[in-house]
Design goal:
- This protein is an alpha+beta fold and 400 residues long.
- The strands form 4 sheets. A 6-stranded antiparallel beta sheet has the order 8-13-9-10-11-12, with helices on one face. A 3-stranded antiparallel beta sheet has the order 2-6-7. Strands 1-3 form a two-stranded antiparallel ribbon.
- Helix 1 crosses helix 6.
Protein backbone atom coordinates (compact mmCIF):
# COMPACT_ATOMS: atom_id res chain seq x y z
CA UNK A 1 0.00 0.00 0.00
CA UNK A 2 1.37 3.35 -0.91
CA UNK A 3 2.60 5.41 2.03
CA UNK A 4 2.09 9.12 2.21
CA UNK A 5 2.86 11.18 5.30
CA UNK A 6 1.38 14.08 7.20
CA UNK A 7 1.52 17.69 6.31
CA UNK A 8 0.54 19.11 9.68
CA UNK A 9 -2.42 20.63 11.16
CA UNK A 10 -5.96 20.03 10.15
CA UNK A 11 -6.55 17.71 7.25
CA UNK A 12 -9.36 18.94 5.06
CA UNK A 13 -10.48 16.79 2.14
CA UNK A 14 -13.72 15.38 0.74
CA UNK A 15 -15.18 12.90 3.20
CA UNK A 16 -16.58 9.42 2.91
CA UNK A 17 -16.74 6.03 4.64
CA UNK A 18 -19.36 3.49 5.65
CA UNK A 19 -21.29 4.29 8.80
CA UNK A 20 -19.65 1.43 10.62
CA UNK A 21 -16.09 0.34 9.96
CA UNK A 22 -14.12 -1.95 12.13
CA UNK A 23 -10.37 -1.68 11.96
CA UNK A 24 -9.85 -0.11 8.55
CA UNK A 25 -6.10 -0.55 8.32
CA UNK A 26 -4.15 -3.55 7.16
CA UNK A 27 -2.80 -5.59 10.08
CA UNK A 28 0.80 -5.37 8.90
CA UNK A 29 3.64 -4.86 11.37
CA UNK A 30 5.24 -1.44 11.69
CA UNK A 31 7.99 -0.71 9.21
CA UNK A 32 10.25 2.21 8.36
CA UNK A 33 8.71 4.31 5.65
CA UNK A 34 10.22 5.49 2.42
CA UNK A 35 10.75 9.09 1.46
CA UNK A 36 7.70 10.10 -0.59
CA UNK A 37 7.57 13.55 -2.04
CA UNK A 38 4.04 14.26 -0.85
CA UNK A 39 3.94 14.44 2.93
CA UNK A 40 0.43 13.60 4.08
CA UNK A 41 -0.77 11.18 6.73
CA UNK A 42 -2.81 8.96 4.49
CA UNK A 43 -2.41 5.46 3.20
CA UNK A 44 -5.43 5.14 0.93
CA UNK A 45 -5.43 6.46 -2.60
CA UNK A 46 -9.05 5.53 -3.20
CA UNK A 47 -11.11 8.17 -5.00
CA UNK A 48 -14.70 8.15 -3.84
CA UNK A 49 -17.67 10.47 -3.76
CA UNK A 50 -17.96 12.57 -0.61
CA UNK A 51 -20.69 13.64 1.72
CA UNK A 52 -20.47 16.22 4.47
CA UNK A 53 -20.80 13.90 7.45
CA UNK A 54 -18.57 10.99 6.53
CA UNK A 55 -14.89 10.11 6.77
CA UNK A 56 -12.84 7.97 4.43
CA UNK A 57 -9.84 5.93 5.65
CA UNK A 58 -7.11 8.38 4.64
CA UNK A 59 -8.84 11.18 6.53
CA UNK A 60 -9.28 8.99 9.58
CA UNK A 61 -5.54 8.32 9.64
CA UNK A 62 -4.90 12.03 9.19
CA UNK A 63 -7.01 12.76 12.25
CA UNK A 64 -5.25 10.22 14.46
CA UNK A 65 -1.88 11.42 13.13
CA UNK A 66 -2.70 14.97 14.17
CA UNK A 67 -3.79 13.68 17.57
CA UNK A 68 -0.40 11.99 17.94
CA UNK A 69 1.40 15.21 16.97
CA UNK A 70 -0.54 17.26 19.49
CA UNK A 71 -0.22 14.70 22.26
CA UNK A 72 3.55 14.33 21.93
CA UNK A 73 4.08 18.10 21.81
CA UNK A 74 1.81 18.50 24.85
CA UNK A 75 3.92 15.99 26.76
CA UNK A 76 7.23 17.47 25.62
CA UNK A 77 6.74 21.26 25.59
CA UNK A 78 3.30 21.83 27.10
CA UNK A 79 1.53 22.52 23.79
CA UNK A 80 -2.12 23.64 23.92
CA UNK A 81 -4.53 24.59 21.10
CA UNK A 82 -3.66 28.22 21.83
CA UNK A 83 0.09 27.72 21.42
CA UNK A 84 1.86 29.66 18.72
CA UNK A 85 4.97 29.28 16.60
CA UNK A 86 7.24 29.53 19.63
CA UNK A 87 6.74 25.84 20.45
CA UNK A 88 8.91 25.07 17.42
CA UNK A 89 11.72 27.23 18.83
CA UNK A 90 11.68 25.76 22.32
CA UNK A 91 14.87 24.31 23.77
CA UNK A 92 15.10 21.98 26.75
CA UNK A 93 14.13 23.97 29.83
CA UNK A 94 11.96 26.45 27.94
CA UNK A 95 14.42 28.95 26.41
CA UNK A 96 13.86 29.87 22.76
CA UNK A 97 16.37 29.68 19.93
CA UNK A 98 16.34 32.32 17.20
CA UNK A 99 17.14 30.68 13.86
CA UNK A 100 15.58 27.72 12.08
CA UNK A 101 18.72 27.29 9.97
CA UNK A 102 19.65 24.03 11.69
CA UNK A 103 18.98 22.19 14.93
CA UNK A 104 20.45 24.54 17.57
CA UNK A 105 22.45 21.73 19.25
CA UNK A 106 22.76 23.80 22.42
CA UNK A 107 22.99 22.02 25.77
CA UNK A 108 20.62 23.50 28.35
CA UNK A 109 20.21 22.51 31.97
CA UNK A 110 17.43 22.55 34.52
CA UNK A 111 17.49 21.89 38.23
CA UNK A 112 15.07 19.42 39.77
CA UNK A 113 14.64 18.08 43.27
CA UNK A 114 16.49 14.98 42.12
CA UNK A 115 19.38 16.83 40.53
CA UNK A 116 20.43 18.70 37.40
CA UNK A 117 19.39 17.50 33.96
CA UNK A 118 21.29 18.59 30.86
CA UNK A 119 20.00 18.17 27.32
CA UNK A 120 20.36 19.57 23.81
CA UNK A 121 16.78 18.62 22.88
CA UNK A 122 14.97 21.27 20.86
CA UNK A 123 11.86 22.02 18.83
CA UNK A 124 8.21 21.19 19.23
CA UNK A 125 9.05 17.52 19.77
CA UNK A 126 12.37 18.00 21.60
CA UNK A 127 14.55 16.26 19.05
CA UNK A 128 18.07 15.46 20.19
CA UNK A 129 20.71 16.57 17.67
CA UNK A 130 21.75 13.00 16.83
CA UNK A 131 18.13 11.93 16.34
CA UNK A 132 17.39 14.89 14.08
CA UNK A 133 20.55 14.46 12.01
CA UNK A 134 19.92 10.75 11.61
CA UNK A 135 16.37 11.30 10.39
CA UNK A 136 17.47 14.09 8.08
CA UNK A 137 20.03 11.83 6.42
CA UNK A 138 17.62 8.91 5.95
CA UNK A 139 15.03 10.61 3.74
CA UNK A 140 15.35 12.39 0.42
CA UNK A 141 12.49 14.85 0.79
CA UNK A 142 12.58 17.66 3.35
CA UNK A 143 10.94 21.07 3.01
CA UNK A 144 13.18 24.03 3.67
CA UNK A 145 12.70 27.71 4.38
CA UNK A 146 13.17 30.48 1.82
CA UNK A 147 16.85 30.70 2.73
CA UNK A 148 17.46 26.98 3.03
CA UNK A 149 16.57 26.66 6.72
CA UNK A 150 16.33 23.00 7.75
CA UNK A 151 14.70 23.01 11.21
CA UNK A 152 11.51 24.77 10.13
CA UNK A 153 8.13 23.89 11.69
CA UNK A 154 6.94 21.80 8.75
CA UNK A 155 10.13 19.73 8.75
CA UNK A 156 9.80 19.17 12.50
CA UNK A 157 6.24 17.90 12.07
CA UNK A 158 7.27 15.56 9.26
CA UNK A 159 10.18 14.25 11.31
CA UNK A 160 7.88 13.58 14.27
CA UNK A 161 5.54 11.46 12.12
CA UNK A 162 8.42 9.54 10.62
CA UNK A 163 9.98 8.86 14.01
CA UNK A 164 6.64 8.00 15.62
CA UNK A 165 6.06 5.35 12.99
CA UNK A 166 9.58 3.98 13.30
CA UNK A 167 8.93 3.30 17.00
CA UNK A 168 5.94 1.12 16.07
CA UNK A 169 3.58 3.52 17.86
CA UNK A 170 1.44 4.14 14.78
CA UNK A 171 0.82 0.45 14.36
CA UNK A 172 -1.03 0.32 17.68
CA UNK A 173 -3.14 3.38 16.83
CA UNK A 174 -4.11 1.91 13.47
CA UNK A 175 -5.10 -1.39 14.97
CA UNK A 176 -7.28 0.28 17.61
CA UNK A 177 -9.08 2.72 15.32
CA UNK A 178 -12.68 2.42 14.14
CA UNK A 179 -15.36 4.75 12.83
CA UNK A 180 -18.75 4.42 14.48
CA UNK A 181 -21.61 6.67 13.35
CA UNK A 182 -19.08 9.02 11.70
CA UNK A 183 -17.08 9.35 14.91
CA UNK A 184 -13.40 8.38 14.92
CA UNK A 185 -12.70 6.20 17.93
CA UNK A 186 -9.34 4.93 19.13
CA UNK A 187 -9.55 2.46 21.98
CA UNK A 188 -7.86 3.46 25.26
CA UNK A 189 -5.83 0.26 25.09
CA UNK A 190 -4.49 1.22 21.65
CA UNK A 191 -3.57 4.72 22.80
CA UNK A 192 -1.80 3.31 25.85
CA UNK A 193 0.15 0.79 23.75
CA UNK A 194 1.07 3.52 21.29
CA UNK A 195 2.39 5.81 24.02
CA UNK A 196 4.26 2.90 25.56
CA UNK A 197 5.98 2.22 22.22
CA UNK A 198 7.07 5.85 21.94
CA UNK A 199 7.99 6.39 25.60
CA UNK A 200 11.68 5.61 25.12
CA UNK A 201 11.85 8.26 22.39
CA UNK A 202 9.86 11.04 24.06
CA UNK A 203 10.50 10.99 27.78
CA UNK A 204 7.42 13.05 28.62
CA UNK A 205 5.11 10.26 27.44
CA UNK A 206 3.86 7.63 29.89
CA UNK A 207 4.69 3.94 29.62
CA UNK A 208 3.04 0.73 30.68
CA UNK A 209 6.27 -0.76 32.00
CA UNK A 210 9.55 0.63 33.33
CA UNK A 211 11.44 -1.35 30.69
CA UNK A 212 9.62 0.49 27.91
CA UNK A 213 11.17 3.77 28.99
CA UNK A 214 14.69 2.76 27.98
CA UNK A 215 17.06 5.70 28.40
CA UNK A 216 14.14 7.77 29.70
CA UNK A 217 14.03 5.67 32.88
CA UNK A 218 15.52 8.48 34.96
CA UNK A 219 13.81 9.63 38.17
CA UNK A 220 14.81 13.22 37.36
CA UNK A 221 12.74 13.10 34.14
CA UNK A 222 9.04 13.82 34.63
CA UNK A 223 6.37 12.12 32.59
CA UNK A 224 2.65 12.58 32.07
CA UNK A 225 0.12 10.15 33.49
CA UNK A 226 -1.50 7.70 31.12
CA UNK A 227 -4.99 8.97 32.06
CA UNK A 228 -4.11 12.57 31.20
CA UNK A 229 -2.39 11.50 27.98
CA UNK A 230 -5.38 9.50 26.78
CA UNK A 231 -7.65 12.45 27.58
CA UNK A 232 -5.48 14.87 25.56
CA UNK A 233 -5.38 12.43 22.63
CA UNK A 234 -9.15 12.04 22.62
CA UNK A 235 -9.73 15.79 22.88
CA UNK A 236 -7.57 16.19 19.79
CA UNK A 237 -9.55 13.54 17.91
CA UNK A 238 -12.81 15.37 18.58
CA UNK A 239 -11.43 18.82 17.76
CA UNK A 240 -9.72 17.85 14.50
CA UNK A 241 -12.57 15.73 13.22
CA UNK A 242 -15.01 18.59 13.76
CA UNK A 243 -12.76 20.93 11.78
CA UNK A 244 -12.43 18.45 8.93
CA UNK A 245 -16.15 17.92 8.65
CA UNK A 246 -16.99 21.61 8.85
CA UNK A 247 -14.62 22.60 6.06
CA UNK A 248 -15.31 19.60 3.83
CA UNK A 249 -19.03 20.29 3.92
CA UNK A 250 -18.27 23.34 1.79
CA UNK A 251 -16.65 21.43 -1.08
CA UNK A 252 -19.83 20.83 -3.15
CA UNK A 253 -20.71 24.50 -2.83
CA UNK A 254 -17.22 25.58 -3.88
CA UNK A 255 -17.46 23.37 -6.96
CA UNK A 256 -20.91 24.64 -7.92
CA UNK A 257 -19.83 28.27 -7.60
CA UNK A 258 -16.68 27.66 -9.62
CA UNK A 259 -18.57 25.88 -12.40
CA UNK A 260 -21.06 28.71 -12.57
CA UNK A 261 -18.23 31.12 -13.41
CA UNK A 262 -16.93 29.14 -16.41
CA UNK A 263 -17.18 31.21 -19.59
CA UNK A 264 -17.97 34.40 -17.71
CA UNK A 265 -15.82 37.48 -17.22
CA UNK A 266 -14.38 38.14 -13.78
CA UNK A 267 -13.12 41.69 -13.37
CA UNK A 268 -13.05 42.15 -17.16
CA UNK A 269 -10.14 44.09 -18.59
CA UNK A 270 -7.92 43.66 -15.54
CA UNK A 271 -4.80 41.52 -15.58
CA UNK A 272 -3.61 39.11 -12.89
CA UNK A 273 -6.96 38.53 -11.18
CA UNK A 274 -6.52 34.82 -10.40
CA UNK A 275 -6.17 35.25 -6.64
CA UNK A 276 -9.18 37.55 -6.40
CA UNK A 277 -11.21 35.01 -8.38
CA UNK A 278 -10.30 32.14 -6.02
CA UNK A 279 -11.09 34.34 -3.03
CA UNK A 280 -14.46 35.25 -4.54
CA UNK A 281 -15.34 31.58 -4.98
CA UNK A 282 -14.53 30.63 -1.39
CA UNK A 283 -16.04 33.75 0.12
CA UNK A 284 -19.27 33.07 -1.80
CA UNK A 285 -19.23 29.61 -0.20
CA UNK A 286 -18.94 31.19 3.24
CA UNK A 287 -15.20 30.64 3.58
CA UNK A 288 -13.37 33.99 3.39
CA UNK A 289 -9.63 33.37 3.21
CA UNK A 290 -6.94 35.56 4.76
CA UNK A 291 -3.67 36.55 3.11
CA UNK A 292 -1.18 33.93 4.26
CA UNK A 293 1.57 35.00 6.64
CA UNK A 294 3.29 31.61 6.48
CA UNK A 295 6.82 31.92 5.04
CA UNK A 296 7.64 28.22 5.17
CA UNK A 297 4.98 26.05 3.53
CA UNK A 298 5.43 26.93 -0.15
CA UNK A 299 8.29 27.04 -2.63
CA UNK A 300 7.94 30.81 -2.97
CA UNK A 301 10.73 32.84 -1.32
CA UNK A 302 8.28 35.77 -1.07
CA UNK A 303 5.70 33.75 0.88
CA UNK A 304 4.01 35.40 3.83
CA UNK A 305 4.74 38.96 2.75
CA UNK A 306 1.98 39.91 0.33
CA UNK A 307 -1.65 41.00 0.36
CA UNK A 308 -4.74 39.22 -0.97
CA UNK A 309 -4.19 40.08 -4.64
CA UNK A 310 -1.05 37.96 -4.97
CA UNK A 311 -1.30 34.28 -5.86
CA UNK A 312 1.19 33.30 -3.16
CA UNK A 313 -1.12 34.78 -0.51
CA UNK A 314 -3.36 31.72 -0.93
CA UNK A 315 -0.64 29.10 -0.37
CA UNK A 316 0.13 28.69 3.32
CA UNK A 317 -0.68 26.65 6.40
CA UNK A 318 -2.87 29.46 7.73
CA UNK A 319 -5.11 28.94 4.68
CA UNK A 320 -5.33 25.18 5.04
CA UNK A 321 -3.22 22.06 4.65
CA UNK A 322 -0.39 22.43 2.16
CA UNK A 323 0.44 19.36 0.11
CA UNK A 324 2.61 18.51 -2.89
CA UNK A 325 2.16 15.84 -5.53
CA UNK A 326 3.65 14.85 -8.86
CA UNK A 327 0.27 13.63 -10.11
CA UNK A 328 -2.42 16.24 -10.92
CA UNK A 329 -5.18 13.60 -10.80
CA UNK A 330 -4.46 13.19 -7.08
CA UNK A 331 -5.31 16.83 -6.34
CA UNK A 332 -8.76 16.70 -4.72
CA UNK A 333 -11.81 18.75 -5.56
CA UNK A 334 -12.13 21.92 -3.53
CA UNK A 335 -8.41 22.55 -3.29
CA UNK A 336 -6.42 25.64 -4.26
CA UNK A 337 -3.60 24.90 -6.68
CA UNK A 338 -0.51 27.09 -6.85
CA UNK A 339 1.59 27.25 -10.03
CA UNK A 340 5.13 28.53 -10.19
CA UNK A 341 6.78 30.93 -12.64
CA UNK A 342 3.88 31.04 -15.11
CA UNK A 343 4.83 34.53 -16.26
CA UNK A 344 7.21 37.38 -15.53
CA UNK A 345 10.77 37.36 -14.25
CA UNK A 346 10.20 36.17 -10.70
CA UNK A 347 12.56 34.15 -8.53
CA UNK A 348 12.60 30.39 -9.02
CA UNK A 349 9.69 28.82 -7.14
CA UNK A 350 7.55 31.96 -7.13
CA UNK A 351 3.84 31.12 -7.10
CA UNK A 352 2.37 33.32 -9.80
CA UNK A 353 -1.00 31.69 -10.53
CA UNK A 354 -3.73 29.95 -8.54
CA UNK A 355 -6.80 27.94 -9.49
CA UNK A 356 -9.61 25.95 -7.90
CA UNK A 357 -9.09 22.21 -8.22
CA UNK A 358 -12.25 20.35 -9.22
CA UNK A 359 -10.90 16.78 -9.25
CA UNK A 360 -9.93 14.34 -12.02
CA UNK A 361 -6.94 16.47 -12.94
CA UNK A 362 -9.02 19.53 -13.80
CA UNK A 363 -9.18 23.06 -12.52
CA UNK A 364 -11.16 26.29 -12.91
CA UNK A 365 -9.24 29.53 -13.04
CA UNK A 366 -9.31 33.11 -14.18
CA UNK A 367 -6.42 33.42 -16.67
CA UNK A 368 -3.68 35.98 -16.02
CA UNK A 369 -4.63 37.64 -19.29
CA UNK A 370 -8.00 39.37 -19.23
CA UNK A 371 -9.98 36.36 -20.46
CA UNK A 372 -13.16 34.69 -19.17
CA UNK A 373 -12.96 32.04 -16.47
CA UNK A 374 -11.92 28.65 -17.88
CA UNK A 375 -12.12 24.97 -17.03
CA UNK A 376 -8.98 23.19 -18.14
CA UNK A 377 -6.46 20.50 -17.30
CA UNK A 378 -4.05 21.12 -14.47
CA UNK A 379 -1.22 20.06 -16.79
CA UNK A 380 -1.92 23.26 -18.76
CA UNK A 381 0.84 24.57 -16.52
CA UNK A 382 3.99 22.53 -15.87
CA UNK A 383 4.96 21.30 -12.44
CA UNK A 384 7.60 23.22 -10.51
CA UNK A 385 11.33 22.66 -10.94
CA UNK A 386 11.19 19.57 -8.71
CA UNK A 387 8.36 18.04 -10.73
CA UNK A 388 5.71 18.75 -8.10
CA UNK A 389 2.41 20.61 -7.89
CA UNK A 390 1.59 22.47 -4.66
CA UNK A 391 -1.99 22.67 -3.45
CA UNK A 392 -3.92 23.64 -0.34
CA UNK A 393 -6.96 22.01 1.24
CA UNK A 394 -8.49 25.22 2.57
CA UNK A 395 -10.39 25.54 5.77
CA UNK A 396 -9.43 28.91 7.15
CA UNK A 397 -8.22 27.06 10.22
CA UNK A 398 -4.88 25.65 11.24
CA UNK A 399 -4.74 24.27 14.77
CA UNK A 400 -1.54 23.39 16.52
Amino acid sequence: MRRIYIYIGLFLTCLTAPILLGSMFLPSPPEPSGAPAEIVAARSSASVEATADQLRPNQTLAIISQAAIETVSWAEVGWTPDSGEEVYRTMFGGALFESYAKHPDSVQKIKTKSGVIRSAAAGRFQFMPDTWNSLYSQYDYWPTGANGEEFIPLAQDIAMIRLYEKTGAFYHLEQGTSVLLHQVIVSPEAIAKSMNAAASTWCGLPSLTAEARGDCDDPRQSQKTMADTIAVFNESLVRNQALQLRASAKVPEVLAISENWVGKDFNPGALAQCAYFVREVFESAGMPLPASKDPFSSTDPRAGRYGPGMAVSLIGSDIGIVRRTASPVEIPAGSIIGFTNTYGDFEEGAITHVAVGIGDGEMIDRPTAAKPVQKRRIETFPADSSGMYTYVLPGGVYAR
